[in-house]
Amino acid sequence: MNTGANIVTCPYCDRGFKNTRALGVHRASQHPVENNELIVTERVKVRWNIEHLRMLAAAEARAPATIKFMNQYLVENGGTGRNLESIKKQRQKAEYKRLVEEFRQGQGNDFSPPVQVIPTGQGNAAEKTTLPEAHCNGDEAFNDQIEEHVENGRVNLKEQLELDLRVLRNNLAIKGVKHLARAVEKALSGEDTEPHLEQWLRTAFPQLQQARNHRNGSPMEPQVLSRRKQRQRDYQEVQKLWRKNMSKAAGKVLDGDSSSGPHPDLDTQERFWRPIFEERNPTIRSEGAPAKHFFEEICSPLTLEELKSNKPGSKSAAGPDGLRASDWVNGVADWVKMTIFHIFQHTGRVPAQWRNSRTILIPKESGTMDPAKFRPISIASVILRHYHKVLSSRLLDLPLLDKRQRAFIKADGLADNVFVLSATIADARVRMKELHVAAIDVRKAFDTVSHEAIERVMNGKGLPSRFVNYVMNMYRTSSTVIEVNGETSQPIFPGQGVRQGDPLSSFIFNLIIDDVLKQIPAECGYVLNGRLINALAFADDLVIIASSTQGLQMILDRVVTCLAQHGLQPMPSKCRSMSLVPSGREKKMKIITEPTFTIAGANITQMGVNDTWNHLGVSFGHRGPTAPAVEMEDLLERVTKAPLKPQQRLTILRVFLIPRFIHRLVFGISTHGMLRRLDKTVRKSVRTWLFLPKDIPTAFIHTSIQEGGLGVMSFESRIPEMTRTRLQNLTLSDFPVAREIPTHEWGISRLKWCDLAKIKNNQWARKLYSSVDGKELREARQSQLSTSWVSDPFVIIPAREYVQNVRTRINALPSRMRTTRGARRVSQPVMCRAECGEQETTAHIIQRCLRTHGGRVLRHDAIVNRTSELLTNCGYKVEREKRYETSEGARKPDIVAAKDGQVSIIDVQIVSGGPPLRELHAAKRQKYANNGDLIRSIAQRFHCEPSNVAVSTVTITWRGIWCGESDKDLCSLGLSRKSLRGLTTRVLQGSHINFNRFNSMTTVARHGVWPWRRRAARSLPRDLGTPTC
Predict the structure, then answer these.
(1) What pLDDT is recorded for position 1020?
(2) What is the phi/psi pair of residue 6, to 5°?
(3) CA 314 – CA 799 distance, rounded (Å)
(4) 346 with 189: CB under 8 angstroms?
(5) pTM as predicted
(6) What is the distance between the alpha carbons of residues 404 and 4, in angstroms, rounded to a whole number?
(7) DSSP 656
(8) Residue spans of alpha helices (H) in 397-480
(9) Which of 106, 173, 179, 694 is 20 to 30 A off residue 721, Cα-Cα?
(10) Which fold is adopted by the domain 842-1002?
(11) Ramachandran quadrant class, 290 (left: phi over 0; alpha: psi -120 to 50; beta: rest)
(12) How far does Cα 337 stand from its chain's mean position?
């Protein structure tokens, strides 16, 4: 029994605990800031870590040969902060001497070669850890990699143009080709081609409307409408926008109409952006060796495969010339496109009409009035964007970029960076190793990079002079205009920056950041899995990593200097740093909260215990990625209140809303409980939109459309699978550090979390088919016709009918058996109200009840008539329900279609989904195929051989599930699945009409007049299946 003397009291909240361990757990969870301050990290004797040893060895290797007192020199220039005696002892060790020698061998290169160091966390250590080079593109390796490219030689571009000219002269009848041929002749003779290329565009696309460079009148004052008329107007606007641009309509519903809110006008935006664009940014020139030019294949003629694989998206915005992407991609022959691009390559120039751009401003924050919080996106002609996309693809295949730059490459670079940073923080905490991280924000990096620096870097990388001259000529001669609310500014001639939105700009900017990464000291960094990592880059998002405060500050100073050489400046107010320092005695990790680092003369904000920062869309704290904040309820409420139809709501949910959170949930620290709660929230809204009861199978919502469900993604099952896939794909990465993350302790723990999911994504279908309501949907995957109507984003099906179809599909219609399910009492009647003697299930009402007999006939005839119409449109001679006398009795097939000596007998049946549909199809087919008299009579009537008479069926369940054989047979007759989709919805519509007919009638069975249905019959015909609730 505990006494009061044994109780330990928390000094912050006076809560009592049995022992100090319980108090420590409480203090860490409830008072993290105070608990962090109690951790003591000061040591009487400071130990050497790997980074300090490498910094010291690098300083000695780079020291001038004239230094006489090396120990004193290293105290002053080593950057480790150690005293003279400590440095003396380290210099006497053989491992240190080996480190110095290795740095000296790599002194002639910009990058240090692979080295070996001794981990000194425990003083003396015998085990050696191999640290590969931190940089992946040393000069020697770079030269080795380009030799094979130089040996490949080049293709003569002039000969290719001459070949193009012969092709053009053979096709002068095509509109505009004569102007293009004239442009090729001018290109071969070295004359100006621009007038002829522009004339080709005007001739090939006479409907183009040039962008007018004037200001439109002020917008009309909004009308004051009644609430009813305002709702009607909102509905019309949303529906019109949905038909024009589904993505914009979804954004308007989810985020509101950004164009209707307050925002800066054109004059305000132009006053802010014009000086930035037009400034000529001088840079600090760095001395270097004369440029050597390689990679001449960049300027070789294009291939058809390159042209097709890099075509712009059909929905890409038009440039100032007004040419739409769809018109360029579909309206211009590929050989014409290649000829135009070959002219660009040969002359090194693009017509001004195509190289000029229009700049739109995208707000970074909703409702902001600050022009600095807008992102400028330049949109040039789609012709130029297509050409630059081909060039960018060629450049990405060359060994030019540092592996630490993961943006705009042919890899999952975002996953590489996020997972590496997450594993690094986790590794430091588990192994109690010192870690310092800094996130650098570059001020308007894309808009202020120096053109001189771009030219210098491209030449330094060995790019062909023809390509370099083309890029620089484009930047120096092109102009842009700012567009705001349909108004355009006067032309602006940029003096700095690259175009955001141009496919080539991303690679050019990567070259600039690559030059910055090249200057980071190779001796600084953190050892992860035996590899040194000191920087992660994703375009202008730089994360610097080091194992000591001195090492991180050294990297920061070097980065600032290199950025200045390219006309770039950091923004200290947006930079963040985090420091984790272990306390060896307490076995705890302390987060340093005092300002420790500076950049460009200003302190960097130091992250505390409760602070987080955003990196690549993921929130990071001192423990790594944090739990993502997902505000699903508010967005779902907006979708519910928006003037939308149910199909549109489902499309927004599947295509736009749920994908918003996938990135944060995959890379953040999600819990299975949180994912289940998100699924419940989504299912509640879906039931509301489609008027579905609460007891429908949960699996119906999450099963894929192809398997009979609604195709709404389940967070609980899908997020763990996505996380596992992204982690496992790291093994294929060309980034060595990322490649080993799946085998790291952190990666293994994340994979184990993925395995704890209670349900896998491929189990939803089985769960649906095992339910009472979903078992008849088990054959949905056999035919696309069964499910293609479910995805109806353009509202081909009326909204009310769509809801009815979904309710019919999942057996959600309120029959007696359905409404009393789960809480049925003895006094509650469940027999059919028409006194058929059977239980009142939905299947009975629609398929067997006497009240719906006439409706079943009408439904059957509607399918027969529609199928006959489709066959007639395909050129068949069709007879419907003609009577044939045979030895087995009269036979009256629904459809007999003849064409080109081939005859098809087609019989329609709408069945229940109990037995396998293939058996029902075969049984109906044999009824006619085994009747020789019928086959001979039909062959004689249509003047063909009996062997040319085929028999098939249209077998569909009352829930709209097709037999796969019926689908294939009808398609073999030339009918398209697009036209046959209407048969599915017509069956569902007929089934629902039958249900409504049943409820509106009062007829009861008179068994003397209805002799073929026994009052107490419980068995059912084989082709009608079994009753369902």
Answers:
(1) 39
(2) -90, -5
(3) 29
(4) no
(5) 0.86
(6) 59
(7) I
(8) 413-431, 445-448, 451-460, 465-477
(9) 694
(10) Restriction Endonuclease (3.40.91)
(11) beta
(12) 29
Tell me, what DSSP letter sits at residue 831? B
Using an 8 Å Cβ cutoff, are 528 and 737 in contact?
yes
Distance in angstroms between the alpha carbons of the first and the last residue of the chain? 60
Burial of 741 (0-12, 13-18, 19+ CB in 10 A): buried
> DSSP letters along 702-736, please?
HS-GGGTS--PPPHHHHHHHHHHHHHHGGGG-S-H
Pairwise CA distance, residues 606 & 599, whole Å: 12
Q: Is the pLDDT of residue 127 over 50?
A: no
Residue type, 801: E
Averaged pLDDT, 380-396: 93
What one-letter code names the amino acid at 73? Y
Structure tokens at 953: 């069926």
pLDDT at residue 92 in the model: 84
| Residues sharing a CB contact under 8 Å with residue 514, sequence separation 6 or more, in sequence order | 137, 400, 401, 402, 405, 457
Q: Helix (H, G, I), strand (E, B), or coil: what is residue 495?
A: coil
Distance CA 768, CA 770 (A): 5
Average pLDDT over residues 194-212: 78
Instruction: Indicate the residue type of 253.
Output: V
Torsion of CA 819, 823, 827, 830, to 10 degrees: 30
Number of neighbouring beta carbons within 10 Å of residue 800: 10
Q: Name the 3-class secondary structure at 363.
A: strand
- Tokens 């050019």: give the residue: 508
For all residues of the chain together, what is the average pLDDT? 86
| Residue found by looking up tokens 């149910």 in the block | 646
Structural tokens at position 632: 């699903």
Helix (H, G, I), strand (E, B) or coil at 81: coil
Task: Give the length of the chain.
Answer: 1029
At 85 the pLDDT is: 82
**Rounded Cα–Cα distance for residues 6 and 130 (Å):** 51
Residue where the block lists tokens 């002039």:
158
- Which token pair is 317? 């915005």
Question: CB of 981 within 8 A of CB of 989?
Answer: no
Classified as helix, coil or strand, 183 is: helix
Residue 242 has pLDDT above 70, yes or no: yes
What mean pLDDT comes out for the span 980-988? 93
Distance CA 588, CA 830 (A): 68
Rounded-to-integer distance, Cα 528 and Cα 717, Å: 31
Closest listed residue to residue 475, CA positions, set 443, 457, 499, 453:
499
With beta carbons less than 8 A apart as the criterion, state whether 911 and 959 touch: no
Return d(Cα 673, Cα 780) in angstroms, integer.
Answer: 31
Chain mean position to CA 477: 35
Instruction: Collapse the DSSP code of 316 into the 3-class scheme (helix H, G, I; strand E, B; otherwise coil) and give the result.
Output: coil
Q: What letter does residue 653 receive in the DSSP assignment?
A: I
Residue boundaries of the structural domains of the chain: 8-38, 50-105, 154-208, 296-320+356-625, 842-1002
Task: Give the pLDDT of residue 950.
Answer: 94
- 721-724-729 Cα angle (round to 5): 125
> Is the CB of residue 622 less than 8 Å from the CB of residue 580?
yes
For residues 998 and 852, the answer to whether their CB atoms sit within 8 Å is yes
Residue with tokens 């990071």: 620
Task: Indicate whether 212 pLDDT > 80.
Answer: no
Sheet holding 624-625, edge to edge: 613-615, 618-621, 624-625
Token duo for residue 514: 């690559």
What is the 3 state secondary structure string of 160-180?
A: HHHHHHHHHHCCCCCCCHHHH
- 984: phi > 0 → left, psi -120 to 50 → alpha, else beta; which? alpha
Residue 87: CB partners within 8 Å, gap ≥ 6?
56, 71, 74, 75, 78, 80
SS3 of 404, please? coil
Cβ-Cβ contacts under 8 Å for 944 (sequence gap 6 or more)? 898, 901, 902, 903
Residue 65 pLDDT: 81
- Residues 742 and 872: their CA atoms lie apart, in Å, by 60
8 and 19 Cβ atoms separated by less than 8 Å: yes
pLDDT average, residue stretch 502-531: 91
